[in-house]
Design goal:
35% of the residues lie in helices and 22% in strands. The model has no long low-confidence stretch (mean pLDDT 89). The strands form six sheets. The protein has a five-stranded mixed β-sheet with strand order 2-11-8-9-5. A five-stranded mixed β-sheet has the order 3-7-10-4-6, with no helix packed on it. The chain has a five-stranded mixed β-sheet with strand order 14-21-18-19-16. It is built from eleven helices and 22 strands. With 379 residues, it is of the alpha+beta class. Helix 5 (145-184) runs antiparallel to helix 11. A hairpin with an 8-residue loop joins strand 8 (64-67) and strand 9.
Length: 379
């Protein structure tokens, strides 16, 4: 096994373009790339005629897109379609597949060692970034081709299995959404003339805050659960990745969120904005999350499934559905919700509980596969 520099075995493969004859072009921005995910699924669609004189980088299916800004977000993945991206995104490709497999290179660029190097060697001020010259100097161990293939095959098999479970999870969520519409309709199509109220009329809404990360006493040996934006993807939050101390809690404006509230992501990378979760424990949150604490008119699980089924609607409230943007408390408070009698809400909740059990098992399987993937990548 040899030690090689990144630039010895890989290079930037993108070409700048200033004219496009194709009417519809896929575009990938940082918001389309999920943190620590190997494959890029999301993309925007734009017309070539609208691009004008701006310069973009073209990429081909199978090439790796690496977002150079804010490397701590760990945004790097393999595109499975042709398109364009910002020139601030590096398009990476192996120089010689007889030396380094593209599938193995994608693995290398997801290791903890790689991301630690990026974070330690970033440049800039508010929006940190990584220079190509810095990335070119990154060194890593390069095993033989058979060893590369064996490890890459295991990695991608695990990842494809994870993808299949995620599709089942999505299908389960869609089934619940369809059941809700069948039973109650919607705000705009309300055949049974149920009451319609704004969230702010039946719930308290508030955002959290983040204790200074520069003060170690705010975080070291903390016991108060503190939820970050990305954790809304857990669906049901039964623990948080970070804990803060009482000093940290007192040192910022975050608030405790009562158990069985709804938490909505106001901002976040990729698919995070507009995603909702239920907290099964008392916790506090960062400033990019809004807690919705409903009163006795609304069952919290009924509200959770209602809002989760309106994901794209929530995203559109802040502007471009697939682009950058952010929700705020006024947006959340203004959301209209159809409110049947509590007895009807509970009928729906009993149906949704069965789906929740399936989702719980699917999420456990996805988490287990993620652990296998991380082990493969870092060992």
């Amino acid at each position: 096994m040899s030690i090689v520099k990144f630039s010895e075995v890989a290079h930037r493969a993108n070409t700048k373009e200033d004219r496009f004859n194709t009417d519809k072009i896929y575009y990938v921005g940082g918001e389309h790339i999920e943190s620590e995910e190997l494959i890029i699924h999301d993309k925007g669609l734009i017309k070539g005629s609208t691009i004008g004189p701006m310069f973009y980088c073209g990429f081909k299916s199978g090439q790796i897109l690496f977002v150079t800004r804010n490397p701590h977000l760990k945004k790097c993945g393999v595109a499975e379609f042709d398109g364009i991206c910002s020139e601030k995104t590096f398009v990476i490709e192996t120089k010689d597949r007889n030396v380094l497999l593209q599938e193995y290179l994608a693995l290398v660029m997801q290791t903890d060692d790689f991301w630690d190097y990026c974070e330690e060697n970033k440049s800039g001020g508010v929006n940190y970034f990584l220079n190509w010259s810095t990335l070119a100097d990154y060194e890593f161990s390069l095993p033989s081709l058979p060893e590369q293939k064996a490890l890459a095959d295991k990695l991608w098999a695990a990842y494809r299995l994870k993808e299949s479970y995620k599709k089942l999870l999505t299908a389960t969520e869609e089934m619940v959404k369809s059941q809700f519409i069948e039973m109650f309709g919607s705000v705009d199509d309300n055949p049974k003339s149920y009451d319609v109220k704004k969230v702010g009329d039946f719930a308290e809404c508030f955002a959290g805050a983040t204790p200074s990360t520069k003060i170690s006493s705010y975080w070291d040996n903390g016991i108060i659960p503190w939820m970050s934006s990305g954790e809304v993807h857990k669906g049901r939050v039964q623990d948080t990745d970070a804990k803060i101390t009482q000093q940290g809690y007192d040192g910022c404006s975050t608030k405790m969120v009562p158990i069985h509230s709804i938490v909505v992501a106001l901002a976040g990378q990729g698919k995070t904005r507009g995603t909702v979760a239920i907290n099964d424990i008392e916790l506090c949150t960062n400033q990019s999350l809004c807690a919705i604490v409903p009163n006795e008119e609304v069952n919290y699980e009924y509200l959770f499934h209602n809002l989760r089924g309106r994901y794209r609607e929530l995203r559109s409230m802040s502007g471009d559905v697939d682009g950058r943007g952010g929700l705020n408390l006024k947006h959340i408070q203004s959301i209209k919700v159809i409110l049947p009698p509590m007895s009807e809400q509970m009928k729906f909740v009993s149906i949704a509980h069965q789906a929740d059990k399936s989702e719980f098992e699917l999420r456990k399987s996805i988490d287990a596969i993620d652990a296998v993937i991380k082990s493969l990548i870092n060992n």
